[in-house]
Amino acid sequence: MTAFLPQQESGVVAFLRKCQCWINKTRYRYNYEHVPSLAMLDQLHWKDEPKIEWTKQVAARAEFLFKNQLHVAQDEILREAAHQKLKTLAEARDAEFILRKVVHEILHFGGLGVCESVHAKSMQDFESIFRGIQIPPVAANYRGDIEFGLKRLMGSNPVMIRQVSKLPDHFPVSQEHFAKAMGALLPNRNTDSLEQAAGEGRLFLLDYYEFDGAQQGSFPHGRKYLYAPLALFVSAIGGGPFLPVAIQCSQTPGSSNPIFTPADGNAWLLAKTIVDIADGNYHEAGTHLGRTHLIMEPFVLASARNLAWRHPIVQLLAPHFEGTLAINDMAWKHLISDTGAVDRLMGGSIATSRGLAVKTVQNMKIDQSMLPISFEQRGVADPHRLANYAYRDDSKLYWEAITLWVQAFLDIYYKSDQDIQSDFELQAWIRELTSKDGGRVQGLPAPQELTKAKLVEVITFVIYTCSVQHAAVNFPQYDHMSYVPNMPLAGYRPAPTSVDEKIEDEDYFKMLPPMDMVELQMNLGYLLGTVHYTQLGQYASGHFKDPRVAQPLRTFQQNLSGIGEQIQIRNLSRPTYETLLPQGVPQSINI
User: Fold this and answer.
1) Which residues neighbour 436 within 8 Å (Cβ) at sequence distance 6 or greater?
2) Average pLDDT over residues 127-153
3) d(Cα 11, Cα 34) in Å, to the nearest integer?
């Protein structure tokens, strides 16, 4: 269908456009109770159920999980249960309705476990559950301090670090701490100082203050711990590695809440684990669920309700919205429900996780969340001060390519800002997105302030978030989070209270989740982190009927191919980061 602006149409066609929007307003109603106060779809329509191709991909990954269970299970009853699941999948493969039902049950993440609720006694226990599934490479060196730093730059949550010129008063890292840390990290090679690093803009902070006083989890096995640590990092002189210098395990300094450094042995390992637990909780509820899945839902709804199918913007965005309503519907019904997978895995209570998701959405201002602005705000834009920030470097390539594509596409239909103002469907769209009775999105221009330039920014943000940003924070769930010691989602013992505390291997294992939760996190990470459905820039044949779109689309696809080549070249001279290779970036948030 060729695209037209609504002000260009009249008569029956104009009437039909209005009817379509009216029908969609009855089909796509807002609900503010599913995830309290956030704009969500009230009830999923059958037309928005996942396509069978997506369903088959999920089923194929689930098949690997069930085969893995066959290898791991010691109990014959559990082995038989895994065998029956495989049989059911095989029988359902050609029956679309049954297959959808089976996949829906799989995504509940119930009945997938064969491990007992006991803590590991050795590192071999964690490796033993990867039998039919490849153990992620991160398992080999996850305890290393360089690897711990790299997680902040190219891991599952690479959006948290902030450059600081001075430390907060409640995190009193001294030159003595700094020298002690650098002596352990770079023996006989350190010429740096805390003052010099601060003055040169090479100090970076992680601060999980949001978890200070948070309600702790207790489901399903009793007391869990969610910590509120602070961590200091330094970018070594001359573009050297990104190194962890100091960790304080909670917000209030004191004799029982000391500052740990890399010189503190196993206590330092526990401190790093505490940071990873906090980071994992913030990642899942805030960075991933809140700032990709939930923030995009109002855009999907407002587009369906206000933009007729003949509108060029809805034709541009529709492929980037595929599957989002369905996966979000599954998320609030199952993953973040009481006793769901998030409730089981996270260190905080389910109310804490849902509360953080809501808070991150409510505090998100779109005009301040544009990728280049976000890097500037965190003080991480300069590669000379912070080298090898692969997420930053690769994501910027996509932002620029998407901006050029959106600009070229919109130029076909909008010749001036007046065309924007005359587009009454677009005006209704932006108005509803920001309305208290609509999307409740903050940081968008008012209808009367919407220009071509601002519209390009907004549409770029939407496409980037649905594709690249979601890929950056979703797919590392397998690479970085399915091997639980690398990023556990809950602690099971208090933080250490002294740098001199004797920490044995047993103490470390007791901090990590019991094996049934280890297995659940592996299953969740593997399934959510390996389903790559669609690819950015690969629109269905004939999707755009307007011949004027063909050349800008070819240019966009060529630019994406060039990004892939550039990433491959970069990986020859930096720690490998493959998350944002084009073949791993879907069009939409669909898993």
Assistant:
1) none
2) 97
3) 40
Q: Which residues have a Cβ under 8 Å from the Cβ of 490 and sit 6 or more positions away? A: 217, 224, 225, 226, 277, 281, 345, 346, 347, 513, 517
- How remote is the C-alpha of 128 from its chain's centroid? 27
pLDDT band at residue 95 under the 50/70/90 scheme? low
- The pTM of this model reads 0.96
1-591 in CATH: which number?
1.20.245.10
Nearest-angstrom CA–CA distance, 274 and 244 = 13
Model pLDDT, residue 565: 99
Alpha-carbon span 314 to 308, nearest angstrom: 7
Distance CA 150, CA 461 (A): 26
- pLDDT, average across residues 296-322: 98
What is the CB-side half-sphere exposure of residue 323 using CA atoms within 13 A? 22
What does the pLDDT read at residue 107?
62
Residue 289 is which amino acid?
Answer: L
Burial status of residue 179 (CB atoms within 10 A of its CB: 0-12, 13-18, 19 or more): middle
Count of H-run helices and E-run strands, the chain: 24, 7
Backbone angles phi, psi at 491, to 5 degrees: -100, 155
**Residue burial 309-341, b: 16+ Cβ < 10 Å; e: rest:** ebbbbbbbbbbbbbbbbbbbbbbbebbbeeebb
Tokens of 179: 């020298």
Give the torsion sign (CA, 459, 462, 465, 467): negative
**Spatial CA neighbour of 63 closest among 526, 561, 534:** 526
The answer, yes or no, to whether residue 110 has pLDDT greater than 60, is no
What CA–CA distance (Å, rounded) separates 68 from 66?
Answer: 5
**Nearest in space to 308 (alpha carbons), one of 22, 8, 10, 11:** 22
pLDDT at 306: 99
Q: Residues 324, 332: contact at Cβ < 8 Å?
A: no
What are the Cα distances from residue 405, in Å, to 88, 401, 411, 558, 575?
44, 6, 10, 11, 30
- What single DSSP character describes residue 225? B
Indicate the pLDDT class of residue 72, thresholds 50, 70 and 90: confident
Q: What is the band of 255 on the pLDDT scale with cuts at 50, 70, 90?
A: very high
Strands (E), 542-585: none
According to the model, what pLDDT value does residue 93 have? 66
Alpha-carbon distance 160 to 297, whole Å? Answer: 23
Token pair belonging to 63: 């098949």
